[in-house]
Amino acid sequence: MSMTSTASPAVTAPTETVTPPAAITPVVLSGKRRAPFIDFVLRFARNRAALVGLLLVVILIAVALAAPYYYPRDPLRIVGRPELWPFANPRFPLGTDSLGRDIAAVVAHGARTTLMIGLFASLTATIIGVSVGATAAYFGGWVDEVLMRVTELFQTVPNIIFILTVVAVLGQNITNITIAVGVVSWTAIARMTRAEFLSLRDREFVQACRAMGMGNIRIMLGEILPNALPPVIVLSSLVVASAVLFESSVSFLGLGDPNVASWGGLIGQGRTLIRSSWYICAVPGLAIMLTVLALNLVGDGLNDALNPKLRDR
Amino acid sequence: MRRILLRRFAQIIPLILGVIVLNFALIQMSPGSFLDVMTAEQQVSDPAMIERMRVLYGMDKPVVVQLLKYIWSVMTLDFGYSYRQNETVLAVIGQALPATVILMLASIAIALLIGVLAGVIAAVKVNTIWDNLISVGAVFFFAAPTFWLGIMLMIVFSVRLGWLPVGGMRDIGVDHGVFGDALDVMRHLALPALSLGLFYAAMYTRVMRASMLEVFRHDFVRTARAKGLSGAQVVLRHVFRNALLPVVTLLGLQLGTVLGGSVVIETVFSWPGIGSLMLDSVMSRNYPVVLGVLVLSSLIVAVANALVDIAYFRLDPRIRAR
């Protein structure tokens, strides 16, 4: 297997498929060539905001992982007096909601829900988008035409309305929400993948692979895809952020999974109490905002690190 | 020109056919048949009656025949009947549409006004405290969920300060006269339009700033300066106009998401538009209305996109030359 890929420039960095291939790696400004991964880290770190975003994401992941240890019991169970303000009782640092549930527990467990849906929706979108974009560009002709029309179709359907319809018709549970969010989020990834594949499919290393008799699938997945990935990874990371927003909207509207703690759901249930206890809405909303903010900043940083040529645009 | 117009609008047809097929697929995938919901809603339990309804709705026919019949009925704008409102689905949606269009237009206007202005200021005063403040603000508003922002604005301006109404489109039971009515609607519109508009304003600020800075680097700007034009003249006449194009592109691409966003915001402020209708229909399992909204909103976006393309074609000579 490894011998057959000698024609690929990826061979210069066999362990690091994420790195741009030699053909499009720009000359590093200092003139010295560094290891690609270190180069990537340095570029990312140059963006201060991205570092802040990364820190926030790490905290979020830590909260999500720690939630079952700190709050081992069901976060949706009633534990105290309703509408207890934050800091009023040290047992409930973020207060309690309209039913007397611990907001801190709901927020901590909500982080798990949010991250899971965000990641899996983005994964779904990436798989669909890359498959569609790669197939369209690689085969061209009527395949391209049909697939691009389908992409346009999904760009036209208003996304939230589509998600609500799917959830309404197929049922309110986490799987359906995740898939629905993924299904409305893949179009940009498909277009990006298609553009990358179009620019790569006639390069010499691909022709060399063809001449060696490699199959289409193997060329697409093993040779072109690794080189097309950098901009796709950036888009996928941004899709995680938008998926978090979609999920919170759906839960806010009362169409989320009723058995799962969710930030949007907490806001939706708290909004009838904005006159007496506005913190019930404010706290989970801040959590959503910081999460989306962090993911966007990390996406920007990845863009700087992976697509150096685009950075100054 | 006319041929291009026709061709652009002809592209909408396969798109809408696709939406209809998507719709049909959703119905087919739903657990439990459509008929179950309808019989439950009308409290029909007699098997003979259910069988008669099956035949009436063509559900005894093969799937392909059902699909063709479905396409035909949607093509003739027959989306079925809503028992909840006791009217055709088309009429129900038609009544809700104007409120949503008003909200969308107001949000877009706010987004353009704030976004373009803030973007220009940030670009002209690049790397100053103003630029930093605007950029940080944009990052925050771009991350805030619109429904949450709406609730926060409502807490401040309606609940605490009491300046603006908490929801609805008009004061109930008060006759303001024609001008008074318009003013009344605007008072009710302010917060929902702002909540939705600020998200897009944040996006336009970033795009406008980046695109201004990009245009500043072009040679024709240097030429304009060399001719002796003042800084303001260069910015307004040369940079601004060219920098605006990406914002317009983005605006055209986002009509669908603005429509989706208004669905969420409408429910926050009880704005009586498509969004409130959609949520009500989802909650009451009123599938004909839900599916009708999906098809019609896609149609609206498709037509609007075509109009933006055509406007673009007329505005930008470079595209016309292609």
Automatic annotation (TrEMBL), chain A:
The keyword Coiled coil does not apply. One of its GO terms (biological process) is protein transport. It is a multi-pass membrane protein. Its main location: membrane. One of its GO terms (cellular component) is plasma membrane. Residues 111-299 form the ABC transmembrane type-1 domain. CDD domains: TM_PBP2. It is found in: Cell membrane. The chain crosses the membrane at residues 49-71, 117-140, 160-189, 224-246, 277-299. Pfam families: BPD_transp_1, OppC_N. It comes from the Bacteria. Keywords: Cell membrane, Membrane, Peptide transport, Protein transport, Transmembrane, Transmembrane helix, Transport. Belongs to the binding-protein-dependent transport system permease family. This is ABC transporter permease.
TrEMBL record, chain B:
It is found in: Cell membrane. GO terms for biological process: transmembrane transport. It is a multi-pass membrane protein. One of its GO terms (cellular component) is plasma membrane. It comes from the Bacteria. Pfam families: BPD_transp_1, BPD_transp_1_N. Residues 97-312 form the ABC transmembrane type-1 domain. SUPFAM superfamilies: MetI-like (SSF161098). Keywords: Cell membrane, Membrane, Transmembrane, Transmembrane helix, Transport. The chain crosses the membrane at residues 12-29, 101-124, 136-159, 189-207, 243-269, 289-313. The keyword Secreted does not apply. Belongs to the binding-protein-dependent transport system permease family. This is ABC transporter permease. It comes from Azorhizobium oxalatiphilum. The lineage of its organism: Bacteria, Pseudomonadati, Pseudomonadota, Alphaproteobacteria, Hyphomicrobiales.
